[in-house]
Amino acid sequence: MRKQIAAANWKMNLTLQQSEALMNELLAIPHTLNENQQAVFGVPFPYLINVKNKLSGKKNAFVAAQNCYDKKSGAYTGEVSAEMLKSISVDYVILGHSERREYFNESHAMLAAKVNISLENGLKPIFCCGEALSVREAGNENNFVETQLKESLFHLSAAQMTGFVIAYEPIWAIGTGKTASNEQAQQMHAHIRSVLAKQYGQAIADSISILYGGSVKANNAKEIFAQPDVDGGLVGGASLVAADFAAIINSLK
Ligand code: 13P
């Protein structure tokens, strides 16, 4: 059975002190994660070790980096390698977020290389995809997302794709307070799963967790997560409020 995942993406927010206060508050709120559910904290690089330590002994709670570089090591001032992340016991890495594609010009090919080096180092990618409003208005969202998956993931083996994690984040829903409707989310998640099934077979497609991202809040998470092909969420703004993210974790199937 595929994992149900509530993943926080703090983006470039919070000081160390604020991040500690948030984690302390969150960990004080009772929440239960069953065998099949995970909470993942995508935090800025400087806080990874600290948050990892705070989660020690907690079952099914993991940390994620928000990016890594696509080269092994060397003269790349300011970059962080997958090997470095692994050496501090990071579990996941968010790759291909639309903000990175847009502001840092991350291409399909660069993302394929980042996926590869992450897997080589034992990090689990959370691979983001999703279309801009203009693409949806042109009725081209299915093809657009399919191309993102094909260009950056379809070189992977069946074994590498088993249990993989994808996040569908329509750009028009990120930080706008405007979520995709339950139907829009389910339709695209089913499309993504069918594209995966065509390439890898139904059993592998069924093992892949497809998270929804884009204005997931405490008051809408349950209905979105209840859609059959939605396996949790990747959450920005609401993950910065302890009570809200706890409620989102508690909304997992
Ligand atoms: P919001 O939840 O703030 O819309 O952000 C979504 C997102 O980009 C998560 O990666």
Number of strands: 8
Name the CATH architecture.
Alpha-Beta Barrel
Alpha-beta classification? alpha/beta
CATH topology: TIM Barrel
Give the cofactors and ligands: 1,3-dihydroxyacetonephosphate
Shape: globular
Q: From the structure provided, what is the oligomeric state, counting identical versus distinct chains?
A: single chain
- Radius of gyration from the alpha-carbon trace, in angstroms: 17 Å
How many separate structural domains? 1
The spatial strand order of the largest sheet comes to 1-2-3-4-5-6-7-8
- Summarize the helix and strand pattern as letters: EHEHEHEHHEHHHEHHEHEH
The number of helices is 12
Unreliable stretches, pLDDT < 50, 5 or more residues? none
CATH class: Alpha Beta
Strand content: 15-25%
Separation, N- and C-terminal Cα atoms:
12 Å
CATH H-level superfamily title: Aldolase class I
Largest β sheet strand count, sense and barrel closure: 8 strands, parallel, barrel
What is the helical fraction, as a range of percent?
40-55%
The pLDDT mean sits at 97
